[in-house]
Design brief:
The chain is an alpha+beta fold. The chain has helices at residues 25-35, 69-139, 142-145, 176-194, 205-208, 517-522; strands spanning 13-16, 22-24, 50-52, 151-152, 155-156, 212-218, 227-233, 238-243, 247-252, 257-263, 269-274, 280-285, 290-295, 301-307, 314-319, 325-330, 334-339, 344-350, 359-364, 370-375, 380-384, 389-394, 403-406, 412-417, 420-425, 430-435, 446-449, 455-459, 462-467, 477-482, 490-495, 501-506, 510-515.
Length: 526
């Protein structure tokens, strides 16, 4: 008697009333509970249709193969062969799966390369399109400019052209993706600041106290003298200056040679900024334009874009710490937020309160989420970049705010005006210290923290360096450098890498470098 399911002699045999088939009780019970039908005939079957057969206790006979040692060995050999065949089949399946995975990975890598190339081509096309948009309206009559469609990021920006119904130029705005990028960058920088330490290579106070004039470098034309702005690229130790002669000059300090002269503006260059660790320079001018310059293979800088979004003098340019965006401030009472890659103005912001005159200075906070601006009517305003809302206003200055600088520690702000320099605590939004270094009619024209936040320099009729302290401690003046130009107007000041030197521009055509003579001889590239 053999079980119809297992093909072996059942231990607890049962029989089906309907089909008469014999089953092992535990097997048929499980099958009925799962399927409710006979496994052989497929007819409906329940446990009520099953009759148990009574049998005597018998000893199950051994298989014939297990009756002898050679038979047992034969069984083992058969089992071993089956195991080896199964293992071989598994290895073949594994090899096939690995080949398929390798092919899939190759296809994925190829797809990623194609996507990267397409993205690059897309970005280049967007940049060319944005540049063409800025150039085409300027070549059309005023009556036709309104009909030029504004395109942003490859999409049509407005059906009615480049202007909104209220007559203002259309701006695509700061997208949620850009806001996420700025927020993520802010989180990273904020965490890094908590672990920030003063570099050991920073020039000590006793060295700064001994600074003297090292070099005088005539960079601009004599018929229109005056250096109005300067910036330093620390990685290459090159200096950019903007002059009243409508030129910007790139100067290699270690070699003492002029690398390139950036000609193109029709009026004085009021602001010049390097895009850190890149080959780009941004300049702003009294001719109401902003120009983007890129270094060519021969080392000279060529103008790649001319931006004409302001209607009055561009007074300040500030580069965002991501190196992907920058902002400009103008006497037309607006500041603009640009995408650097395309030169596209994403947002142009004016003061909704109407209380501010034109903007004379601007600077991004090191974290990149707030922007500080100074105006002709002595107001200092702090803006939330994400919402472009004015979140704080500082009053107290006399005259136009000529310069603004955030400390690297993130919570000190220095501003300069006709009445001197004021220091603001961004945590409590209040002024905690003021300097009045000059006579009443002598304005402070520049103020600048060094990159470590350890020193503060201000410039006017001379140059003064203060040691940065806390809110309650004194900020001692550790060095006063005379204005050797003879004009009585030091217009801009900037610390070199690790404050190893100080670069000063004045209303003559010379760039002056102050530092330690022995430092200049021992480490001319530092």
């Amino acid at each position: 008697m053999i079980c119809s399911i297992s093909g072996e002699v059942p231990v607890e045999p049962v029989i089906s009333k309907s089909s008469g088939l014999l089953f092992e009780k535990r097997l048929i019970e499980r099958h009925i509970s799962d399927f409710g039908k006979c496994p052989i005939t497929g007819e409906p079957l329940s446990m009520d249709d099953i009759v148990q057969i009574k049998t005597g206790n018998i000893v199950k006979p051994r298989p014939v193969q297990a009756a002898s040692i050679p038979g047992i060995l034969g069984m083992f050999q058969i089992e071993w062969d089956a195991l080896m065949l199964s293992n071989f089949a598994l290895e073949q399946q594994l090899h096939t799966a690995r080949q398929e995975l390798s092919h899939a990975l190759y296809q994925h890598d190829a797809a990623c390369r194609v996507i990267a190339r397409l993205k690059k081509e897309r970005d280049e096309s967007r940049a060319l399109l944005a540049q063409a948009e800025r150039q085409i309206p300027s070549q059309l009559p005023v009556s036709d400019r309104v009909n030029v469609a504004a395109v942003s990021n490859g999409k049509r920006a407005a059906e009615d052209g480049d202007f909104n119904a209220d007559g203002k130029r259309f701006r695509p705005g700061i997208s949620s993706a850009i806001i996420s990028e700025l927020t993520e960058f802010n989180d990273v920088i904020s965490k890094q600041r908590k672990m920030r330490t003063i570099p050991s290579s920073l020039a000590p106070v006793d060295a700064v106290e001994k600074y003297t004039q090292l070099t005088v470098n005539p960079l601009h034309r004599t018929n229109k003298p005056g250096i109005l702005s300067l910036d330093i690229m620390y990685s290459k130790d090159i200096i950019a200056t903007g002059g009243a002669d409508s030129n910007a000059v790139i100067f290699d300090r270690p070699s003492g040679q002029v690398v390139s002269t950036l000609s193109g503006h029709s009026k004085k260059v009021t602001s010049v900024k390097f895009v850190a660790d890149t080959d780009m320079v941004v300049t702003g001018s009294a001719d109401k334009t902003v120009r983007l310059w890129r270094e060519s293979e021969d080392g000279h800088y060529d103008c790649r874009s001319t931006l004409k979004d302001h209607t009055a003098e561009v007074q300040a340019i500030t580069i965002h710490a991501t190196k992907n965006y920058f902002a400009t401030a103008s006497l037309d009472g607006t500041w603009c937020f640009y995408e650097l890659a395309s030169g596209l103005c994403l947002s142009q912001v004016d003061d909704p309160s109407g209380s501010s005159g034109g903007y004379t200075s601007a600077s991004f906070h090191p974290d990149g989420l707030i922007l500080g601006t100074g105006s002709t009517d002595a107001h200092v305003k702090v803006w939330d970049v994400k919402s472009q809302a004015n979140v704080a206003t500082f009053d107290g200055h006399v005259g136009a705010v000529t310069a603004i600088s955030f400390s690297e520690n993130g919570y000190f702000l220095a501003t300069a005006a006709q009445d001197g320099v004021k220091l603001w605590d961004l945590r409590k939004l209040k002024n905690f210290r003021s300097f009045a270094p000059y006579e009443e009619n002598t304005p402070t024209l520049s103020v600048e923290f060094d990159h470590s936040g350890s020193y503060l320099a201000l410039a006017g009729s001379d140059i003064r360096v203060h040691q940065v302290a806390s809110v309650k401690s004194e900020w001692n003046c550790i060095k006063t450098l005379p204005d050797l130009s003879g004009t009585g107007k030091a217009t801009c000041v900037k610390f070199g890498p690790d404050a190893k030197y100080i670069a000063v521009g004045s209303m003559d055509r010379n760039l002056r470098i102050f530092g330690l003579p022995e430092e200049e001889e021992q480490n001319p590239v530092s």
